[in-house]
Structures are given as structure tokens and as C-alpha cells.
Specification:
By secondary structure, this protein is mainly alpha-helical. It contains 6 helices and no strands. It has helices at about 5-35, 40-70, 75-80, 80-85, 85-125, 125-160. The relative contact order is 0.12.
């Protein structure tokens, strides 16, 4: 197996981990905890997924940069008008920008709003509801942006 194939494999595995984790949280964990609130279980699930998610982000970043390098796509290609105008060039630029937005939103969610929401929930603070809604909206937006990234990945690799 070549290094490139291993890198693509790890890239897809990390993406599947991130996307699958988001879907699992939204479809299984959050609805279950709404019916039977359990702050300890919520805290455990959130912190475990946060660790897994940031590892997946690191793998996606490292393998993504390596994959671009192997495919001969560098800064000069990304900024060339002809490449930017092509369907795969547009898709790649949208994918990269979307990934950057996801990283920023996830950092705000994981290291600011989320911990404050959990603490407020555990303390029975009235602020818990507002923070939980903010965290939920960030999660939804990130989920939608993640789906855009997956679509762009397909276009980059397979074309339109």
C-alpha cells in the first residue's frame, strides 16, 4: 500500500468518524437525553466525542494537506484563476473554507459555550436553557456545513 492510499484511507476514516459521530449525537443521544435527562451521561458523551472529534480534525488536516501535495495542488494552483474557475477547484476551495469555519465553530462550541451550558445545567441555573440552545444551533450549523464538505469532497474527486 502506498503512503498516498494510506493517507486517503485515513482521511476517509476520520471523515466517517466525524460525520457518523454528529449523526449519532443528533439522532440518538440528544433525543434520548431530552426524554430522560442525565447530566452525567451528557457530560461523558460530550467529552468523549470532543476528544474523538478533535483527533479526527487533526487527521483530516494532516492527511488533507498531504493528499493535496501528492495530487500536485498547492497554493499557486489554489490561487490560479483557471483552477478556481473549474468545478473541482471551486469545490475544493469551498471544502477548505467550510472546514476552517467548522473548526472555529467547533472550538467555540467545545471550549466556550458547551462547558458553560453543562455547568449551568448541573447548577440548575436559568442560563442553562439559553446556552443549551446556542450550543444546539452551533451543532446544527456545523452539521449542515459538514454535509457541504462531504458533497464538495465528492465533486473534487469525481467531478460534477
Amino acid at each position: 500500500m502506498t503512503a498516498y492510499v494510506a493517507s486517503v484511507y485515513l482521511h476517509i476514516l476520520a471523515a466517517a468518524t466525524w460525520v457518523g459521530g454528529i449523526i449519532f449525537l443528533v439522532v440518538v443521544v440528544v433525543p434520548a437525553l431530552r426524554r430522560a435527562p442525565n447530566p452525567e451521561l451528557l457530560r461523558e458523551a460530550v467529552f468523549r466525542f470532543r476528544t474523538v472529534g478533535w483527533i479526527a480534525f487533526a487527521v483530516l488536516l494532516a492527511t488533507g494537506l498531504y493528499n493535496l501535495h501528492v495530487r500536485g495542488i498547492g497554493w499557486s494552483e489554489l490561487t490560479a484563476p483557471g483552477y478556481r474557475a473549474s468545478p473541482s477547484g471551486k469545490a475544493l476551495l469551498i471544502k477548505l473554507a467550510s472546514f476552517a469555519v467548522v473548526l472555529v465553530l467547533q472550538a467555540v462550541h467545545d471550549f466556550s459555550i458547551g462547558p458553560r451550558a453543562l455547568a449551568a445545567l448541573e447548577q440548575g441555573s436559568p442560563e442553562a436553557q439559553r446556552l443549551r440552545k446556542q450550543a444546539g444551533w452551533i451543532g446544527r450549523v456545523n452539521g449542515l456545513i459538514t454535509l457541504v464538505i462531504v458533497l464538495c469532497a465528492v465533486i473534487v474527486v469525481r467531478g460534477c
